[in-house]
Amino acid sequence: MKKILVGIDCSQHSMDVLAAAIRLAQQTGARLHLFRGVGIPREVPAAAWSCAPGELDVVLEREALAELNQAARQVPDGMLAGTSVALGTPWQAVCEAAKEHNADLIIIGSHGFGAVDRVIGTTAAKVVNHADRSVLVVRARERL
Predict the structure, then answer these.
(1) What's the pLDDT tens digit per position in 45-76?
(2) pTM value?
(3) Which residues contact 52 (CB under 8 A, 6 or more apart)?
(4) From 44, 63, 99, 133, which residue has the greatest number of CB atoms within 10 Å?
């Protein structure tokens, strides 16, 4: 295993996903590529309200990349293969990024069990079902 694509979003669980990916990379000698697939959010960032209509995608990508770069600071030296963001349906974006970056494994979190997720399925479930490579799903730890 040489490269692992790590799906990161803005949830608290993402840091658990990143920690699990770092541990696995340390054991296997793999490098990590942090990725975020960005859909149009239900809550638009404040910066988006002041931009021209055609610039929303730029604002969303910039915000997501800033969050990824913050997360990347936790990755040990020499282990980070890169960071990237793509607009689109998150599960499709993750699957495409894994191909584009030639990842041997995808690591994602298992969160997202609201009413809508129960009907149409979670991002994690869709990645597992549609990815053309192995997927490791990191479960959220019980918080006391």
Answers:
(1) 666 667 676 777 887 888 899 999 999 999 99
(2) 0.84
(3) none
(4) 63
